[in-house]
Specification:
alpha/beta; Arginase, Chain A; eight-stranded parallel β-sheet; two-stranded antiparallel sheet; 10 helices; globular; binds manganese (II) ion
Length: 281
């Protein structure tokens, strides 16, 4: 298949630092060649915030989403699968804007809920609000200005492997319509959920925050948390998604190479991206 790898080497106001160094690491490890050997046609594009926007973390993140949205829209128009490598999860807002569908389903792998709002966050990390923004629960004015953005309905989201939640974030999540699949239940629960008419055959955006992986299989970033999925679990879950749904775009995020001292996460990420390309075909 034709794949547009959209690299977004950005993390919280900084380019190519911390998790913003992840996309370059994956590309220099031979990601494009690996996909090409799998029979795919690959084109690589990079998104950076407009220079004029590099002054405030919140506005910069949304300006960057605007750029990502345009790249994703172009990829869809030329029948390429948008495959985003990003430092931050908030880039999902730009991907969803590029897909621009109120009916989009989302399967979101993450150690965290990313469901904080400015009122519930303890860490003050904008990225911890990514899924909340995507579902229209906060930063609504800024999100609505990202060209093409339509909030995803909570009931159309499956959150997989989340285990490290702020207390008020946990309450919000429990009161939401978001479907949850715990680490260790991905085999049967995810398949059963995706067989439901709400998901079966539907268009889906797959978001893989690599810190969903258990630290025993490699350390993804400073936010890594115990009790995660094995790489094999993630691979199997991706295959289930590919069987039940139509993958319209995917992101692989939050990889900070400086924590991956033995390179296991780099290998895992490359493998998972290969699987995404295979099952999306
Ligand atoms: Mn995340």
């Amino acid at each position: 298949m034709k794949i547009r790898v959209i690299s977004v080497p950005y993390d919280s106001g900084h380019l190519r630092a911390r998790m913003g160094a992840g996309p370059d690491r994956l590309l220099s490890a031979g990601l494009a060649d690996r996909l090409q050997s799998g029979g795919h046609q690959v084109r690589v594009e990079e998104c950076a915030p407009p220079k004029a926007a590099l002054h405030a973390e919140v506005s910069t993140a949304f300006a960057l989403n605007h750029v990502i949205s345009a790249q994703v829209r172009e990829a869809v128009a030329t029948r390429e699968l948008p495959l985003v490598l990003a430092g931050n999860c908030i880039t999902s807002v730009g991907v969803l804007a590029g897909l621009s569908s109120e009916q989009m389903r989302v399967v979101w792998f993450d150690a965290h809920g990313d469901f904080n709002t400015p009122e519930t966050t303890i860490g003050g990390f904008l990225d911890g609000m990514a899924l909340s923004i995507a579902t229209g629960n906060c930063w609504t004015q800024l999100a609505s200005r990202v060209s093409g953005f339509r909030a995803v309905q909570e009931k159309n989201v499956v959150l997989v492997g989340a285990r490290d939640l702020d207390p008020m974030e946990a309450e919000l999540l429990a009161g939401s319509a978001i479907n949850r699949v715990a680490a260790g239940e991905t085999g049967d629960s995810l398949d059963a959920l995706l067989q439901d008419s709400a998901f079966s055959g539907a268009d889906v955006y797959v978001h893989v925050d690599l810190d969903v992986i258990d630290p025993s299989e490699g350390r993804v970033n400073q936010f890594a948390a115990e009790g995660g999925l094995s790489v094999q679990d993630v691979e199997s879950a991706l295959r289930v998604i590919g069987t039940r749904c139509r993958i319209r775009a995917a992101s692989v995020t939050a990889y900070d190479p400086s924590y991956d001292v033995d390179g296991r996460i780099c290998d895992a990420a490359l493998r998972l991206i290969e699987v995404i390309a295979e099952v999306a075909s």
